Amino acid sequence: MARRLPSLNALRCFETVAAQLSIKKAAAALHISESAVSRQVRILEDQLGLVLFRRNHSGLEITEAGKALAASTAGAFDQIARTIDSFQRDQDTVQIKVLPTLALRWLYPRLRRFQAQNPLIQVVVHTRWHDMISGDGEAELGIRYGLGNWARDRVTELYPEWLAPVCAPDYVSGRKLETAEDFDRCTLLHPQPNHDDWRVWCAGWGGGAFNTDGGLDFDVLDMALRAAEAGFGLAISDVVLAQDTIEAGQLVAPIDRAVPSGVSYFLVRPPDLSERRQVRLLHEWICDEMSDSRKIIDTYRH
User: What is the CATH number of domain 8-87?
Assistant: First the structure.
């Protein structure tokens, strides 16, 4: 049966204008001129015999007919894009999004083991300053930091975060860290400008309150840990992410007390992507590698 379809180019322009409700923004998104976008929308309205947008003093207003067509075209174009992507995606490549410190301190030092076990699978790591945005189409797996409020069939808890102070071996040489006054004499290194991690540890360590307002601020934990390794002060760290450096002798935990932050790391995958064998292998490997994390936490917890 022959399909009655208007110009696909006009539909594509209409779909973008409907999403942006702006000719100017649609033109920028499509990399064509505003007049070309307006012309394609007029062509579509003429072909359908419908008014899709009304122009008023505040900009564009989409009509009921326009809303119905926009929903249909957006779904159709998304389905076409997913189908084409499935043809073009390299079946031996798995993309994963990871927070920078976890990528640098945990994933990259271990990734060679996965590559040795699976030499035909290429893992592409994307680091994000904040968090993986589920469903944005770039990655099939992500290691996220949060409370776990994702669909249960798409998330696996890797480990709960526990915090402890760490520093270079010679930073506390000859000094004890037993009281709040001992911490007041240290330069605190904050992995976040809001100082929340140090506040959480101070509230939970049981040795009394000390000043967490001063010290040096950083944007990510890795930067604070590097400053600690260089002897600039006392960093507060996720004990799992500091463990490799502690074992290497670059950092020490001068006080054997860790405090749970109430947040965990989770392995997630967006719901609109089928799990390929390569994805499943990486998923299983990360979970296996992370099994040691709870043993590390137990050494501080007890």
Answer: 1.10.10.10
Q: How many CA atoms lie within 13 A of 33 on its CB side?
A: 3
Domain extents for the chain? 8-87, 93-160+265-301, 161-262
Q: How far apart are the C-alpha atoms of 148 and 44, rounded to whole Å?
A: 45
Q: What is the pLDDT of residues 255-286, one digit of tens each?
A: 988 999 999 999 988 665 556 888 889 999 99
The chain-wide mean pLDDT, for the chain, equals: 87
Listed in order, strand segments (DSSP E) in the chain are 53-56, 59-62, 93-98, 122-127, 141-146, 155-166, 188-190, 216-217, 234-238, 259-268
Top-level class of domain 161-262: alpha beta
Amino acid of residue 286: I
- Is the pTM higher than 0.70? The answer reads no
Q: Which of 233, 252, 227, 231 is nearest to 186 (CA)?
A: 233
Rounded CA-CA distance 117/15 in Å is: 45
